[in-house]
Amino acid sequence: MRSYNSPDSAVKHLQPENPVIIYRPHALKRAVDTFLTQFNGDVMYAVKTNPDEHVLKDLWDNGVRRFDAASLHEVSLVRGLFPQAEIYFMHTVKSRKAIREAYHTYGVRHFSLDTQDELDKILAETGQANDLGLHVRLAIPNSYAELALTDKFGAGQTEAVHLLQNVRDVALSAGVCFHVGSQCMHPDAYKLAIKLAKQVIKAAGVQIDTFDVGGGFPSTYPGMTPPDMSSYFAAIHDATRDLVKQHGCRLLAEPGRALVAESGSVLVRVELRKGNFLYINDGTYGSLFDAGQPKWLYPCRLLNRKATAEDQEGFSFYGPTCDTLDFMKGPFYLPADIQEGDYIEIGQLGAYGRTMATRFNGFAPANQPVTVKDEPLMSLYAPARVSVAQTRKVA
Ligand SMILES: Cc1ncc(COP(=O)(O)O)c(C=O)c1O
Questions:
Q1: Measured between alpha carbons, how far is 376 from 382 in angstroms, rounded to an integer?
Q2: What ligand 1 atom has the least distance to the C-alpha of 137?
Q3: 394 CA to middle of ligand 1, Å?
Q4: What residues contact 242, with CB distance under 8 A and at least 6 apart?
Q5: Mean pLDDT of 109-119
Q6: Atom 4 of ligand 1 has which residue's CA nearest to it?
Q7: What whole-number distance in Å separates Cα of residue 63 and Cα of residue 55?
Q8: What fold, for 51-255?
Q9: How does pLDDT run across 321-364, given as a tens digit for each residue?
Q10: Structural domain spans, the chain
Q11: pTM for this model (two decimals)
């Protein structure tokens, strides 16, 4: 992978025609170190967040040994790269073939579920295996999350109690898991979820071996500044202390966004300006889905030249496809004199960026990642928190 001092020098050398992934390995390492040294449990990376090979390899090189896979493809990707990895298949709805191959071909022993039907499938397809780690996913409120994951997944309290008892009867290791929703903005969400999980465990009257607090750990974006990661860990450790002592259970977490968001940016080019609308060469069908649909804001920076205008203005983006949904409202703050041919770095796209991209209209997803050595546009982990002017809160 080519390496540059900064995205500016990458633009200078490449003058890229297509969007380019900017990758900062030092930012990834900082996030991983934070989790591995401060979270009192096992950290599994949620592969869906960013399955790029260079990211997975750097996670491994920095000490991540467990991976949360959502599909058979992710299972095989991880197993192909890391024969020693512990893979957790944490999608609660899996095809029979996926369960079978995960268990028999790829050595997966951990599965999540939220129904008796799924438990029956897992047992049938693994040949009633007696070495399974089974994780009952609980439905919990996602009230503090910017992207809620409720409704689709999770067993209600009563159902979860029965499931946990049934799982306990057949599993080598039994436990519960949940997801507080993505980009969870307050540690109290974990406290509430843990309280509900404890009620289920108590009502089930069984010993558990694992307690998985899921993903949801936040990153920082314009208008979304979460508390320090240490306050999330403190809330989880406090709320689980008695449980860990009583059951001797292992704490697990499945972070995605918080590990990789700030290590990735996308470098795009302005193809046309119409007033305060910039037509750029990446969009909602590419790396910028979340800028379009949930209308998230991302930090931006002009790269190829020094702006002549002192002031910044809020811009909206149109992506390259013919679809009017390929629109990112913003506002994204950039120098007022931005023009066709300018290159922009759009930051905080290491999570749920290129992994969501399509080839709609023949536009290839951002490719050919390059590494850079400077700091990300925003950071939760940098010693002095980094943040650009565009972080102003939008009404
Ligand atoms: C089961 C599961 N675990 C972990 C994650 C990662 O979540 P996050 O990126 O919010 O940390 C997700 C994301 O959707 C998920 O569905």
A1: 9
A2: 1
A3: 26
A4: none
A5: 98
A6: 215
A7: 12
A8: TIM Barrel (3.20.20)
A9: 999 999 999 999 999 999 999 999 999 999 999 999 999 999 98
A10: 3-22+262-391, 51-255
A11: 0.95
